[in-house]
Amino acid sequence: MKIVFGPVSSRRFGLSLGVDLSPALKQCNFDCVYCELSPAKSIQAQNSVVSVEEILHEINVNLNKGLEFDVLTLTANGEPSLYPHLKELITSLKKLLNNKKILILSNGTAVLHRDKFEALLELDIVKFSLDSVISKTFYRIDRALKSIDLNLMIEKMAEFSRIFKGELVMEILVVAGLNDNEKEFKALDEALEKISPLRVDLSTIDRPPSYPVKAVSEQKLNELATFIKSVPVLIAQRNFSEKKIRLSKEELLKMLHLRPQSQMDIELKFDDETLKNFNELLAQGCIKILKLAGVKFYKVDKNY
């Protein structure tokens, strides 16, 4: 039973040392159609619980190896916030890790429970998923426990964002034929405006899913991203197979004014001529750099 894994390199959060809070089996209050783990009945609480002492011991073993990492990531075979000793664990980790950041990858349901809500406030980075804000679609994709109130969860995410001193990131995973349309994304944009995270990560299925659902194309992800106006969007692609684009300086400034572009966008999408124009504009101070939860974004400087 391996609790700690990595470090692994991530373009989204840097070099990450992972901690699995449900190492023995899948334990989740969702049973998402795109999950790479085998289907399992949604549950309200963990039945198989690893102790805080076991987790800390394994982390210490890895720290004593002199491993280099930027962030320690709390995750699980399922939903990590179901871990019953979350507050105690986070308190211990903060003492143990000193200057290392702590991140959790959560489906967002923690905000519905005051003790979990307060535990997550102590973290450096929190990432919530939100695949749909339309109830019918949400339950079709995430197969959540029916006791989970989607509208209340969105309101509580917004409340969490207002209080949280760390970096809040949202994630949307797009499933073909379910949440891959303008109506869904305009509704998501309204919710994201309320929640006000630093950024939203947009992705699609890239591993064999537990149910017979399909990914959307890179082109579709880019199209859907245009409906998100309220927050910078990172399209989390492993590669970009489409033809690279060429933009003049004027076209680049227009693009960056309408929507900030991530470092990943620039590396994967722009041809050499566009990169030259981009670097010249950056040197001239026309473009501003934003660092949002470990990812660089570029936008037009408001003074330009």
Automatic annotation (TrEMBL):
Keyword ATP-binding tagged: no
Enumerate the GO terms in the molecular function aspect.
4 iron, 4 sulfur cluster binding; catalytic activity; metal ion binding
Keywords from the UniProt entry: 4Fe-4S, Iron, Iron-sulfur, Metal-binding, S-adenosyl-L-methionine
What is this protein called in UniProt?
A: Wyosine [tRNA(Phe)-imidazoG37] synthetase, radical SAM superfamily
Superkingdom to which the source organism belongs: Bacteria
Provide the taxonomic classification.
Answer: Bacteria, Pseudomonadati, Campylobacterota, Epsilonproteobacteria, Campylobacterales
Task: Provide the Radical SAM core domain boundaries.
Answer: 11-246
Coiled-coil region: none
What's a Pfam family in this record? Radical_SAM
Q: What is the required cofactor set for this protein?
A: [4Fe-4S] cluster
User: Which InterPro entries does the record cross-reference, listed alphabetically?
Assistant: Aldolase_TIM, GTPase_Obg, rSAM, rSAM_sf
